[in-house]
Amino acid sequence: MTTSTGHPADSHPASELTALEALHTTPARRYLSPEPIPEDVLWAILDAAIRGPSGGNTQYWGWVVVTDQDIKDRVAVWYRENWEAAYGSRREEILSTPAGSRGLTPRGFLGAEHLAHHLHEAPVWVFAVLRGAAEATSPRAGSSIYGAVQQLCLAARAYGIGTSLTTLYGGHEEELRELLGLPQDALTMALIPMGYPVQGRWAQPRRRPVEEVVHWNAWGATRPRPE
Ligand SMILES: Cc1cc2nc3c(=O)[nH]c(=O)nc-3n(C[C@H](O)[C@H](O)[C@H](O)COP(=O)(O)O)c2cc1C
Asked: Which residue segment(s) compose the domain that 87 sits in?
């Protein structure tokens, strides 16, 4: 059987990572260069993202690529306000959190703070937009787009481009709808700022041990993982 990757970006080949290597080495990258992303690379990444799943394969989605500086500047203000409201007063507390605790580590916090102050400099933003989500009552509405969002992040990683899934721009839905010209029933489900990383590395994301979060047949039935 032959598989097709469509039209990969010829001018900038993707790295030969295995799928598992990519899954283990794609943390949020929040220190991004303003260096532009070649358009063929962007197409290749988006073409990989839209291979992701949606309920009934409805693909009731759209991917709004933003390079317009005015749009970025406006949305970045909302993002910073929300960042301040959510984390501003907790700065010292989080920065003195002992290593190994759950939640944002001090390093993660500094990265997220950096992004809050430099979001508008990321060369490309992608808004993942889900039709019908504005009126959705199902708590699972997002499941029809977040798989594809993660594919976007993994495809970007293959081209050496950093991403993070963000939602802190929220709370200005009508203004954003107008700014992006979105249909009435649509909602942005995430903003993914993209760019070439200038700091940090493709380190394995820190998570609670797999044995601790996996339950066998019933909640609470955890098991040790064989060596
Ligand atoms: C629903 C959701 C919303 C998020 N919103 C933001 C955000 O607004 N800003 C941000 O910097 N990171 C955001 N993140 C990224 C998380 O902070 C990130 O996944 C977490 O810190 C783990 O990072 P790591 O993969 O580098 O270990 C969000 C993640 C999810 C799943």
From this structure: 19-213
Please tell me whether the overall predicted TM-score, pTM, comes out greater than 0.90 for this model.
Answer: yes
CA distance 192 to 170: 13
CA–centroid distance, residue 2 to ligand 1 (Å): 36
Amino acid (one-letter) located at 179: L
Nearest-angstrom CA–CA distance, 132 and 216: 35
220 in any annotated domain? no
**Residue 107, domain CATH:** 3.40.109.10
| Residue 1 located in a structural domain | no
Read off the pLDDT of residues 27-79 as tens digits, 9 standing for 90 and up: 999 999 999 999 999 999 999 999 999 999 999 999 999 999 999 999 999 99
The answer as to whether 5 is a domain residue is: no
- Our answer on whether the CB atom of 77 is closer than 6 Å to any ligand 1 atom is no
Ligand 1 neighbourhood includes 167 CB (under 6 angstroms)? yes
Q: Total structural domains in the chain?
A: 1
Given the CA of residue 108, which atom of ligand 1 is nearest to it? 21
Q: 224 in a domain, yes or no?
A: no
| Pairwise CA distance, residues 113 & 45, whole Å | 26
Q: How many CA atoms lie within 13 A of 226 on its CB side?
A: 0
Q: Is 108 in the pocket of ligand 1 (CB under 6 A)?
A: yes
Residue 127 CA to ligand 1 center (angstroms) comes to 15
Compute, in angstroms, the gap from residue 154 CA to the centroid of ligand 1: 15
